[in-house]
Amino acid sequence: MQLIKVMQCIKWPAKIIVRNTSKSYRNDIGERWFYWKIFIETEPPSLINQIQAVEYHLHPTFRVKDILITNKNTGFRLEAQGWGEFVIKMDVILNDNRSTTISHYLSLDDSAIKEKKETVKIVNVKEYS
């Protein structure tokens, strides 16, 4: 099915929502670090079926900086750990290989478990036609 036909059936504006959660812990030498997760949701939910992958581009201090996630069942969730906040760039890759880039500020604090931090990208038909 062509993306434009699917997009015409979707109530606009459609959204790609990036969220992250985090939980702190102390490492072996007592430093405060965080387990964190980043993932996407879509409005309407059916829009996620038009996405084949999300490529995350992490801070240069990460050993593996570019990570491709293809599991849409988890919202293309990436799980990692670290000690500092930074901007994560994400390429959201559609089924027809077109993509859109989103920048999300990774917020690390224990309240992020209860309050998911989010970035919203409004998606236009023009972007995908």
Describe it:
This protein has 129 residues and is mostly beta strands. The chain has a single domain, classed as Immunoglobulin-like (Sandwich), CATH 2.60.40. Helix content is 9%, strand content 50%. It is built from two helices and eight strands. The strands form two sheets. Strands 5-2-1-8 form a four-stranded antiparallel sheet, with no helix packed on it. β3 and β4 form a beta hairpin. The two termini are 13 Å apart. The N terminus and C terminus are likely disordered.
Number of strands: 8
Report strand order across the widest sheet: 5-2-1-8
Based on CA inertia axes, which overall geometry fits?
elongated
Overall tally of domains: 1
Question: CATH topology, which one?
Answer: Immunoglobulin-like
Q: Assembly state here? A: single chain
Structural class: mainly beta
Please tally the helical runs, counting DSSP H or I stretches of 4 or more residues.
2
Helix content: under 10%
Question: What composes the largest sheet?
Answer: 4 strands, antiparallel
Q: Please mark out the parts with pLDDT under 50 across 5 or more consecutive residues, or reply none.
A: 1-8, 125-129
Order of helices and strands: HEEEEEEEEH
